[in-house]
Amino acid sequence: MNFIKTSKSIALRGAPYVCFLIVFAYALYVNKDVVRADQWRFLFLIERFMDGSLSWNDLFMSHSHHVKPGYKILFILNAILFHLNLKLELLLGIVVHLLSLLLIRATVFGSQEDQFNSLCYVTLCLTWFSFNQVANFTYSLLSFGGFVGTFLMVFYCCLFDRALKENLSYRWMTAALFGYAGCSLLFHGARSLAALVALVLTLFFWIMARKPAVHWRRIVFFIFGLALVQLGYWSLLKTGKKVSADSSIMFVLGHPFDSVKYVLISLSAAVMPTSWMLKRGISEDIMALVGAFLVFTTIFILYLFFRYRLYEKTVVPLIFVIYSFMFVFEILVGRFGKGFPITNGASPRYVFDIQMLTVGLLIVTAIYLQDKSSFMLLRRIAFFFVSGIFVIQLIVMVNSLQRMKIVKKSQEKMAAIILSGDFSAAPRWVCPDKSLCQEKVQFLKLNHLSVFKYK
């Protein structure tokens, strides 16, 4: 009996590392050191750094409502130290992603993973490293830039959780504000608004649920700090040059039914390989139904979260759930009606932020199932829900691993296009602007950067 218990404990402690190693090995095998998509637009930063004309305004250039000076600084440092080794950048991003999961484990589960539902915990690890977000494992801007932002977000969420546990401690609230500022101003871009709403609503629900002695000064201090950071981000957005069109909520309001469908299809990506399924003929309506089912599931699980006062253990899952819904709303406003299809919200590059919803629901389920006295019917429903996600994630992982050679050939083709300097047949995800790429490839070649570093 002790042997079985010990083996289970070792297996659970090793689950994050096993998932990490699978993804790390995949990324190491399939990827080439190539510049792609928006990174072509960032190469001018390296040029200006080299000729001494780089300005702060350059770092604050906005693209698709994102200002990410943190990634741009790291991009320049990569060129200086490693000749713009983007494969190294991508792999480091996956390592940072593991650190985020370990931070969640330490905050939510402590050192007693084996006391929680095993299936929930393993499914959580699989979801965190889900191959539904495969774009994050093949594009270093999303991997390094995105996952560093995720780590900072998880970090300040954990600090905020600690502040609430200590009844709005100034010390922990201040630390959370600094974490939020670093994440929002340097890495998170437009996602910072979704995080802001998630923190404020979580604070509101916590006050309403616990009804503690209201420390209004502390509450005002925290909300004022969040607002100040967000105003700082918006000022940066106005400072830098824009390279994309503004979004508008008016189109969304003018197309309510299509907007709801867009949201539901996007939400389906939290549990399903939506983009892959749509490409294989599964109808949009079916994926919208999956999204609707997930909305009702979320409402029910949040009912359990408040009904059984699970927020007393942690509010981190509530932040994740609200953040995910707000993120979907942001891409609805920012992308819907801008020439993108109604299924655009389920694209692999957006999947991880949407899957934060699943992560939050799995954490709540794991905490709920820790109570052995919970209703048997609810325990069985939870078992089927978690089992379904577990099976889906395994299928997606196996399918992605089977397609590794195809992805590798695609990366090799991308490298060959860049080496040849001929972008006439290059798809948009390789090169967003053919004249720009043809100009910048000469810069890469001259300075022995990226794929040319050994040439």
From TrEMBL:
The chain crosses the membrane at residues 12-30, 73-104, 137-158, 193-209, 216-236, 260-279, 286-306, 318-338, 350-369, 381-401. It comes from Geothermobacter ehrlichii. Keywords: Membrane, Transmembrane, Transmembrane helix. It comes from the Bacteria. This is Dolichyl-phosphate-mannose-protein mannosyltransferase.
